[in-house]
Amino acid sequence: MVLESFSNSLRETIRRVSGASYVDRSLVKDVVRDIQRILIRADVNVKLALQLSRDLENRAMSEKPPAGMAPQDFIVKLIYEELLTILGSESSLSLSPKTIMLVGLYGQGKTTSAGKLARFFMKKGMSVGLIAADVHRAAAYDQLHQISEEVGCNFYGDRNQKDPVKICRAALKQFDSLKIKIIDTSGRDSLDDELLEEIKKLKDAVRPDEVLFVIDASVGQQAGPQAKKINEVVGITGVILTKMDGTGKGGGALSAVAEVKAPIYFIGTGEHLNDMEIFNPKKFLSRLLGLGDLDALLEVAESAEITPEEAEKSVTRLMSGKFDLMDMYDVWEKFSKPGLIRKMIDALPLSRLGGPGKIDGSTIEGAEGKLRLYRTILDSMSYYEMKNPEVLNSSRIVRVARGSGTSVEAVRSLLKEYKAMKKNIKNLQGNRNFKKILKAQLRGGDLSLENM
Ligand SMILES: Nc1nc2c(ncn2[C@@H]2O[C@H](COP(=O)(O)OP(=O)(O)OP(=O)(O)O)[C@@H](O)[C@H]2O)c(=O)[nH]1
Ligand SMILES: [Mg+2]
Predict the structure, then answer these.
(1) Which of 100-109, 190-199, 317-326 has the lowest mean pLDDT?
(2) Which ligand is nearest to the CA of 109?
(3) I need a labelling partner for 355 at 20 to 30 A (CA). Which of 9, 59, 225, 387 fits?
């Protein structure tokens, strides 16, 4: 995977910051130096790496953590925010009808991406036409034609026509009723005036809504100047970063993206036409850093309601494994606001939950309803029972069920859940990341251990 070593070293740095007993000038200096070295090693443009590390240092030295946020977490937040500036703004390609022109050098993945885009829009129920405007490579026509058959979309090409402008004019006329038109253009092995001239002419004639720059994630330092030049000539509106499944350093392509300041819309993750993902810079970076949806966590932490000391106390108690029904009640009473379970789950790294899509809306609604029911049951227990759940035998269970106006099954299911929760907490003991998430959630007044 591209960026793997980049990711590993960044994670290492994050771990070092999180694990530091306090934050001082020398830690900040060390971290800034680390980040700078990691960026340069990943092939990020030196100027950009220096700028970023300088900004990071300035912010770390001058800004104060918001109330309730530990200085360590604050430094992690700054690293995250500064790295995000390289990845560009968050923006997705709209689904309105449009003409898209793909540009880039030889072999970067333009033709493949044209097919992937076609499939993407087809899946959204939109009609698509692919236009073969690469007049230089003899096999280009056949390649795109074959892709259009695989995708099941319209195709326009003319083997005998050597002027891409004429091809596009005819194609757009024929495709007038289609929602999406995608133009595949020629590449060159280096950026020459001929290519620039060709794509400029084409752009002026066609006036596409989007000019997408296709770039292989593993290209090195030459990526920046290439992107800059193409941007000057045709104005890049978005980027498709291909071959993210490859073994490159990735920093060169990212520098190019930072240079043109256009959003990355998609990343290519394989040769197959399904291997394309919508790019979300925040999610991508959080994954790279191994932090789950850090942004959501930080938002929660920022709306601090209880003091860090209180949060620390609760977390320490939960993590100690001494967890009785009183604790469970405490947690539920404090944190059973509607909507918060979703937030908590969304903020967790997906891997810990067994992959995306596992937890849907109805599960969450169910969890919230159950939470209310369980609180009613707990209200009918004595303090002694809550501190010593093991004394809850059949007769006590019947009494609690009656007292709370619920059922024996409901009480038993609460006890079952309590046991499972206790076991989960035991299993998660010592997991630093979990502790951090928990702490942040507690500070924000949001916690449910349901579904974990
Ligand atoms: N692994 C991987 N391979 C890719 C990806 N995208 C494209 N490729 C491969 O890269 C090679 C070049 O892709 P093309 O789509 O032909 O590139 P192009 O920019 O159209 O190339 P020219 O038309 O020659 O300028 C092909 O072998 C593709 O299968 C990707 O995301 N991952
Ligand atoms: Mg091509």
Answers:
(1) 317-326
(2) 1
(3) 9
For residue 117, report the distance from its CA to the centre of ligand 1, in Å: 13
Q: Which of 421, 429, 223, 228 is nearest to 325 (CA)?
A: 421
Instruction: Identify which ligand lies nearest to the alpha carbon of 104.
Output: 1
Q: What pLDDT score was predicted for residue 321?
A: 63
CATH of domain 98-288: 3.40.50.300
Residue 18 in this model has a pLDDT that exceeds 60: yes
Query: What is the rounded CA–CA span in Å between residue 329 and residue 326?
Result: 5
User: Tokens in use for 117?
Assistant: 């885009």
Four-way CATH pick for 294-444: 3.40.605.10, 3.40.50.300, 3.40.1190.20, 1.10.260.30: 1.10.260.30
Q: Which numbered atom of ligand 1 lies nearest the CA of 270?
A: 32
Question: Which residue, judged by its Cα, is nearest atom 13 of ligand 1?
Answer: 109
Tell me the C-alpha to C-alpha distance, in Å, between residue 388 and each of 326, 384, 421, 425, 450: 9, 6, 16, 18, 21
Instruction: Give, using CA atoms, the residue closest to atom 10 of ligand 1.
Output: 109
Atom of ligand 1 nearest to the CA of 187: 25
Give the atom of ligand 1 at the shortest distance from the alpha carbon of 112.
15
d(CA 121, CA 128): 7
Residue 181's pLDDT is what? 98
- The answer as to CATH 3.40.50.1820 being correct for domain 4-87 is no
Calculate the alpha carbon distances from 179 to 185, 205, 220, 230, 237 in Å: 20, 19, 36, 27, 19
Residue ranges covered by each domain of the chain: 4-87, 98-288, 294-444
Ligand lying nearest the CA atom of residue 103:
1
Q: Given a cut of 70, is residue 313 above it in pLDDT? A: no
Reported as a single tens digit per residue, the pLDDT across 218-243 is 888 888 888 899 999 999 999 999 99
Tokens of 173: 């006329």
Higher pLDDT, 1 or 79: 79
As for ligand 1, residues whose beta carbon falls within 6 Å of it are 104, 106-112, 134, 137, 140, 187, 214, 242-243, 245-246, 268-271, 275
- 89 falls in which pLDDT band (50, 70, 90)? confident
Report which protein residue has its CA nearest ligand 1's atom 21. Answer: 107
Strand partners, 276: 268
CB of 190 closer than 8 Å to CB of 217: no
Q: Which of helix, strand or coil describes residue 240?
A: strand
Residue 297 confidence (pLDDT): 46
- pLDDT tens figures, 244-281: 887 677 888 888 888 888 999 999 989 999 889 888 88
